């Protein structure tokens, strides 16, 4: 394949991904992360770069470009920023290969010249992308493996809406222990009904309730298990709308909250930083209001936000595909995952 054709491949993938983000033509953040990783792979395979500095600059610029296309979606930016850390580590490994004493800390005061061309750096980066791709593919399964450690026999579990990671987690737990699941519908999307159908097919006792019934049922609940869209740098969540009020209820009743999240959902952004001017996304309020009542519609404004911000004090434990951690440990995970500064 010629250099021009390789370059046109990754440019086409970039334009397609950017268009999908702008027009909202995607279903899950996992899909966005996978497509972003494929884009990075095509770029690294091309001859558009000569050294680590050029690769990192492209990754940073592309992360900014995709963020501007859809500011509420952090998965593409997270994947690319994680690759920047990987490129730095691969560069230092190659540069110091065979030396007895090396400086392994990338955040040291020593300035590193990443413009030096190193042999086999391309294969190292492609290998890292392959590893990350495997992590994306098996993330939900890896998280589900911890289900037996956290779900005991005869427990009542509450969840909100539908998360495929939570679905796999509960199915794995049900293979070992008998449990009951209460699913909050999560209006206005009511995805909880879809999860209920799936779990009932697996012979799991399931009850579907309206969002307003969560408080009255919370005294029966042993644990809350939810997925999330993004884990923010302070340990807070950007989760599906409705989560905040339900987790406030769990705090009142001292019910522990387990949050399941793949590593690509861990974001280095803080919820109220200058860089995150818009963190929410709004959809049509057609599920909230009857358009037949034209007189009322003319006199009101109806907003249908997709996400809630959940502060870290409402979360008991994060279960990632690389292990379980308290919200206070998020800063350490960020240090290990992303470049500092």
TrEMBL record:
GO cellular component: cytosol; eukaryotic translation initiation factor 2B complex
Subcellular location: Cytoplasm, Cytosol
Predominant location category: cytoplasm
UniProt keyword list: Cytoplasm, Initiation factor, Protein biosynthesis
Keyword Cell inner membrane attributed: no
GO molecular function: guanyl-nucleotide exchange factor activity; translation initiation factor activity
Domain of life: Eukaryota
UniProt KW DNA damage keyword: no
Quaternary structure and interacting proteins, as annotated: Component of the translation initiation factor 2B (eIF2B) complex which is a heterodecamer of two sets of five different subunits: alpha, beta, gamma, delta and epsilon. Subunits alpha, beta and delta comprise a regulatory subcomplex and subunits epsilon and gamma comprise a catalytic subcomplex. Within the complex, the hexameric regulatory complex resides at the center, with the two heterodimeric catalytic subcomplexes bound on opposite sides.
Protein family (similarity comment): Belongs to the eIF-2B alpha/beta/delta subunits family.
Protein name, as recorded: Translation initiation factor eIF2B subunit beta
Organism lineage: Eukaryota, Metazoa, Ecdysozoa, Arthropoda, Hexapoda
């Amino acid at each position: 394949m010629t250099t021009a054709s390789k370059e046109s491949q990754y440019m086409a993938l970039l334009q397609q991904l950017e268009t999908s983000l702008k027009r909202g033509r995607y279903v899950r953040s996992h899909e966005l992360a996978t497509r972003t990783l494929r884009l990075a792979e095509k770029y690294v395979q091309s001859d558009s770069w000569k050294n680590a500095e050029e690769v990192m600059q492209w990754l940073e610029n592309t992360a900014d470009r995709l963020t501007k296309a859809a500011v509420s979606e952090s998965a593409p930016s997270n994947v690319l920023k994680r690759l920047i850390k990987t490129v730095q580590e691969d560069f230092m490994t190659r540069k110091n290969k065979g030396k007895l004493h090396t400086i392994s800390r990338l955040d040291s005061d020593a300035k590193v010249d990443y413009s030096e061309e190193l042999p086999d750096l391309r294969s190292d980066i492609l290998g890292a992308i392959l590893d990350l791709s495997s992590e994306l593919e098996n993330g939900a399964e890896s998280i589900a493996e911890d289900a037996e450690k956290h779900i005991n026999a005869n427990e009542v579990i509450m969840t909100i809406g539908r998360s495929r990671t939570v679905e796999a987690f509960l199915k794995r737990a049900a293979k070992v222990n008998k449990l009951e699941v209460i699913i909050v519908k999560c209006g206005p999307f009511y995805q909880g009904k879809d999860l209920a159908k799936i779990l009932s097919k697996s012979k799991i006792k399931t009850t579907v309730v309206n969002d307003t019934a969560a408080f009255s049922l919370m005294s029966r609940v042993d644990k809350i298990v939810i997925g999330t869209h993004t884990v923010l740098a302070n340990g807070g969540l950007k989760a599906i709308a409705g989560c905040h009020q339900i987790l406030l209820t769990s705090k009142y009743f001292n019910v522990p909250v387990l949050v399941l999240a793949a590593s690509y959902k861990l974001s280095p952004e803080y919820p109220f930083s200058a860089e995150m001017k818009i963190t929410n996304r709004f959809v049509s309020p057609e599920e909230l209001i009857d358009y037949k009542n034209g007189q009322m519609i003319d006199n009101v404004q109806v907003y249908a936000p997709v996400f809630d911000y959940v502060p870290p004090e409402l979360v008991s434990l994060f279960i990632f595909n690389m292990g379980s951690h308290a919200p206070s440990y998020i800063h350490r995970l960020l240090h290990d995952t992303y470049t500092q500064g």
